[in-house]
Amino acid sequence: MNRALRLTAGLAAAALALSACGGDGDDDTTEPAAEGETAEAPEPAELRLWLNGPDTPQPMRDWLVAEFAEQNPGSTLVIEEQEWEGLVDRLTTSLGSESETPDVVEVGNTQAPTFTTVGAFSDITDQVPDLGGDDLLQGFVDAGSWDGKTYAVPLYAGSSYVFYRKDLFAASGIEVPTNMQEFVDAAVKLKQDNASVPNFSGFWLPGQDWRDGAAFLWDAGGDFAVEDGGEWSGALSTPESQEGLELVQRLFNEASGAPKDANEADGHIPFCAGEIGMMLRPGWLRGQIEDPAIGCPDMIANVGVFALPGTDGEPAPVLLGGSNIAISAQSQNQELSANLLELILSDEFQSQYAENGLTPAKVSLADGLGTDEFAAATIEAVTNAKLTPAAANWASVEGSRVLEDLFVNIANGGDVQQLAEEADADIATQLD
Amino acid sequence: MLLLPALAILVAALGYPLYRQAVMSFQDYGLAQQFGQPPEWVGLDNYVTLVTDSYLWTVIARSILFCFANAAITMVIGTALAVLMTLVGRGPRLTLQIGLLLAWAMPHLASLTVWQWLFDAQYGVINWVLVNLGFDGFAGRSWLIDQLSFFVVATVIVVWMSVPFVAFAVYAGLTQVPDELYEAAEIDGASAWARFRTVTVPLVKPVLLIVALLQIIWDLKVFTQIFVLQDAGGITSQTNLIGTYIYRLGLGEGEFGLAAAASWFVLLLTVVLSLYYVRVLVREEEL
Description:
- Chain A has about 425 residues and is of the alpha+beta class.
- Chain A is built from 18 helices and 14 strands.
- In chain A, α2 links the parallel β1 and β2.
- A two-stranded antiparallel ribbon of chain B has the order 1-2.
- In chain B, α4 packs across α8 and α8 packs across α10.
- The interface between A and B is large, with 65 and 67 residues.
């Protein structure tokens, strides 16, 4: 055969072999942002906003799109929904690229420090007074600030509270628990009394759900990681953490019927199937249950809520959930993005979060939550809520999935002490 | 001279990424660098960290095992289907081909969603069927939590996705084998298996070799299937293959320098694994 042809074939084969790995981990064509935009009115453009998960209901999105178009003639707003799962990865790749970056992004409050410390977001310190100033939830502003400058402001807050079935409580003769011991007993009893229902959970806790499991760790006095003289180290193997994780294992074994390795998305499905007695979920679960398309509106009359009680009878320290919102530093539409941020933080938009059971970004709007059972539970749950460790690269711990692995292994009956020691070692490497 | 266009494309498409990858693997390149800060040169540190980390070797061994198992199963099933296509009539053959084509054309994420539903612990049809057949142990069984059964599920999915390509490629090769050869062999008293072994295989050997080479390369860099299954269930550290390992290292943990260094191991591995095939291929062509 012709020698040149043969060479080409060899080259092509080599190219195939090379391309087998050429695509990994080298997507980093970062270019400096264009500077010196001096135009008076911003150029009309299409603005891209990333919102995550189902937390912000559709009517609110529609309102935002319409209102933005009206206030900024010629410009349009496109909302792209992102999944919470894998969000840090996607932000890492997209925010670094001038051509790919969304203009405004929602980011989990615990994930915010990872991006503010590396310069991924625009400095909005000067805009903060217009956005609400001291009225904004301070913990979230802190999470979005670094080195004296503010890069991200709160979008909304919300901590998980317990949703329960009133009819099942009545059938088992259980009162609403007032401390952790009663709560655990209720969860176990519910599962025993409903053993005939397949997959029944007295307390629903899927294996990967460390975010809701954290409440039991913290209530026992434990934590994920602690700082000592500027050095972070894992704290899961301390006696207090062990006690909390042992309780988590007991709940997995004796109270939960959820898959031992599933994630916590779509909890409304087993709930609507009548397979759950209690579950610890954020307020927007109510919206999912009430949604005729995906939920079971008939069930809502049977649903009661309370804030998870701690060992001392006070609300247990649940994970302080919520989001920050920020402008991508690489965005070409800084001015329009600032307009959008202002609209999102406006009383009119924020009070809609309150109506939907989420704590709005502004303290003065909290009354909008109302006075019903759901509002009471929301407000009570937040009083003792806690953040994940404030290490700058905490998001790396989340990105490595070491906590998902730990909880799945605990759910699967592993040795808690040994698993915690391994996880501590992993966490220490990540936070180093 | 004739090679210049091919070379230019190669350099343009692969040269820059490879160059960046090489540079980054010698740098302490993290999230801050991704957003514009100058990276620090660390020499061979990234490589030393990786080579001394037993986890990398575990992942590499796991990937090779997974790759060969999947490539072998895919080749056997694909070739068997191709032979079947030559033996059955027009109607059944068309049905088979359309079925294969649909499986091949289905977007990965869409089919993965369906596969997840099939294997769902509580509502999945596979557990439902098994329980109804009398295997009560499968009620609520998590298929992904155990390492071995995770990879069984992954293998089923990966093989399902790659069989159509093998079947079509080999079938195309088989149609080129002259019927007279089979007739002659049959007259000589060769059994069906002997005819396949001594007539079919030698004649379509180049096709088989190329397809097998592609399968090995593809199965070594399998990513989407593993990544999606890890989110659905399973224990990440026990189920990482080389692709997901590099992804978690780079994008999940923001260690781009380490991830770039790890990528070189994949390159090396792919070249070593495919070298044998490339040699055989080149020799075949010389005949």
